[in-house]
């Protein structure tokens, strides 16, 4: 089948490999470089076939052999609907005709992708940190330079490209603690209890990882709201923990009821050890803002039942409804007195991704963890050290969220103008979305008190439910897929967040510009009316 290196004949195995490769490529094998016909012995042919069989052996990693916990993970926000939206976008680029000209991705809270402008001051400071030569430029304000220099002094080699401590840059953790104290009216915060994270998701996953233990009926149970943000169910599946659902009260503006918490806890005790209670405030996907009394009741419940509290507060700047106000769990816990404040274990989370900033791509965030056992604190730092440190540019972005310009500084006027513009626009869009949904027959939308999503309840006729079953789809998945295929609007079915049996919803972001949002809502209205007529 040919000669080996230096003109020598290769061994039989080399010959067989080259022959097998020739056969696989559809070529006739070349003989030695001499005249005459190529003769294959039966042994050479058998050897070539055997080598070819080995080359296409079974994969080590298959769906059957992979980690079953990873296979169980589902994340609806980027699930089948979004994959289908991507396929449709490719078809549109190829010129394939559709009843629409673009896909509107209203499935995820990605503010800048929807056209929101970045906050100038935040970008200035991160730019200065990234390219310190700009510190000599007169184009940048002094208050931005001052913050950039302070951040860089906390970095090894004065460079954003160096690793930081696993807990994050010390001066930024100090700024986070100062921010929490200002936000909570003087409630003390210790920088040593602050951990900078890769978005809030990283902190939530780390805390859950360290909390989950046991087996059988002693396996850790994690109480989560239904509807919930799918990060929680995904993390619980990955850790092989037990998901314990408690239902928010849709008839009462998605309120959290302690009696429902107690029901869920008592039922769960029969099959697991519930020891974690997750709260999302303001709510995602439901947009409710919890009042002070509700938070006090939840804290008392956690204290009474010895539950570790997780407070997801990434939408704390996003409160729109009159009479609603954000209260941090940390503040209310402190004000309930030392019996609670010195005993209830609480992890609170914040992020650069939401609020008025919308800086999702920087992956900046923090968690504050209080009343942690000293030995567990060491274990948490060890766990976080495995990923070395959070993105340093994200840490810098988080610093500007907690340490923005203040009155008297040159950037303050522009900063406050941009911040208020974003939040006022979101408030208008929240009201617009609620009002327009509630004008559509067969759709009901609770007030959007906060966050950046609507979660309307939709009526789906029995005929459509039967057709969904025939396609092996949840009814609201079937509805959302039809909406995408006929209008180009991508939303997430309520079944991806959880909902009461027999109810159907979808989650839609309110982030598109007002004019595009109006068009989107009109398209949903027209689609829904036609859908009802078709399946009536």
From TrEMBL:
It is an enzyme of class 2 (transferase). One of its GO terms (biological process) is L-alanine catabolic process. GO terms for cellular component: cytoplasm. InterPro entries: ALAT1/2-like (IPR045088), Aminotransferase_I/II_large (IPR004839), PyrdxlP-dep_Trfase (IPR015424), PyrdxlP-dep_Trfase_major (IPR015421), PyrdxlP-dep_Trfase_small (IPR015422). Its EC number is 2.6.1.2. GO terms for molecular function: L-alanine:2-oxoglutarate aminotransferase activity; pyridoxal phosphate binding. CDD domains: AAT_like. Pathway: Amino-acid degradation; L-alanine degradation via transaminase pathway; pyruvate from L-alanine: step 1/1. Homodimer. Belongs to the class-I pyridoxal-phosphate-dependent aminotransferase family. Alanine aminotransferase subfamily. This is alanine transaminase. The gene is Gpt2.
């Amino acid at each position: 089948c040919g000669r080996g290196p230096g003109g020598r004949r290769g061994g039989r195995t080399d010959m067989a490999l080259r022959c097998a490769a020739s056969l696989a490529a559809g070529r006739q094998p070349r003989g030695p470089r001499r005249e005459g016909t190529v003769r294959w012995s039966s042994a050479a042919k058998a050897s070539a076939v055997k080598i070819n069989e080995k080359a296409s052996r079974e994969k080590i990693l298959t769906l059957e052999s992979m980690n079953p916990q990873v296979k169980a993970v589902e994340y609806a926000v980027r699930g089948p609907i979004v994959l289908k939206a991507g396929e449709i976008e490719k078809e549109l680029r190829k010129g394939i005709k559709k009843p629409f000209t673009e896909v509107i991705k209203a499935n995820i809270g990605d503010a800048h992708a929807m056209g929101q402008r970045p906050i100038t001051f935040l970008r200035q400071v991160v730019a200065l940190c990234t390219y310190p030569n700009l510190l000599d430029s007169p184009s940048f304000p002094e208050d931005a330079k001052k913050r950039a220099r302070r951040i860089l002094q906390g970095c090894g080699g004065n460079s954003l490209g160096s690793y930081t401590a696993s807990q994050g840059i010390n001066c930024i953790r100090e700024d986070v603690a100062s921010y929490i104290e200002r936000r909570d009216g003087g409630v003390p915060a210790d920088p040593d209890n602050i951990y900078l994270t890769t978005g809030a998701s990283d902190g939530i996953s780390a805390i859950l990882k360290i909390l989950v233990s046991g087996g059988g009926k002693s396996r850790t149970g994690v109480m989560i709201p239904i509807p919930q943000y799918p990060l929680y169910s995904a993390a619980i599946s990955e850790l092989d923990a037990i998901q314990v659902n408690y239902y928010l009260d849709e008839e009462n503006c998605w309120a959290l009821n302690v009696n429902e918490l107690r029901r869920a806890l008592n039922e769960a005790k029969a099959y697991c050890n519930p020891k974690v209670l997750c709260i999302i405030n303001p709510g995602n996907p439901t947009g409710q803002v919890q009042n002070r009394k509700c938070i006090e009741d939840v804290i008392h419940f956690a204290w009474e039942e010895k539950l570790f509290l997780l407070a997801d507060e990434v939408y704390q700047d996003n409160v729109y409804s009159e009479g609603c106000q954000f209260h941090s769990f940390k503040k209310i816990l402190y004000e309930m007195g030392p019996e609670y404040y010195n005993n209830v274990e609480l992890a609170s989370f914040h992020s650069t991704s939401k609020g008025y900033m919308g800086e999702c791509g920087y992956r900046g965030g923090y968690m504050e963890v209080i009343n942690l056992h000293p030995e567990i604190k060491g274990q948490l730092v060890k766990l976080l050290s495995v990923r070395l440190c959070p993105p340093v540019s994200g840490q810098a972005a988080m610093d500007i969220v907690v340490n923005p310009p203040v009155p008297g500084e040159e950037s303050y006027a522009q900063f406050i103008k941009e911040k208020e513009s974003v939040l006022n626009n979101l408030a208008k869009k929240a009201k617009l979305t609620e009002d327009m949904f509630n004008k559509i027959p067969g759709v009901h939308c609770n007030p959007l008190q906060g966050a950046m999503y609507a979660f309307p309840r939709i009526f789906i006729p029995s005929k459509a439910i039967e057709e969904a079953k025939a396609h092996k789809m949840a009814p609201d998945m079937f509805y959302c897929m039809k909406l995408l295929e006929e209008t180009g609007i991508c939303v997430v079915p309520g079944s991806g967040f959880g909902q009461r049996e027999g109810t159907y919803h979808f989650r839609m972001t309110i982030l598109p510009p007002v004019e595009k949002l109006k068009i989107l809502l009109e398209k949903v209205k027209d689609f829904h009316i036609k859908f009802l007529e078709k399946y009536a």
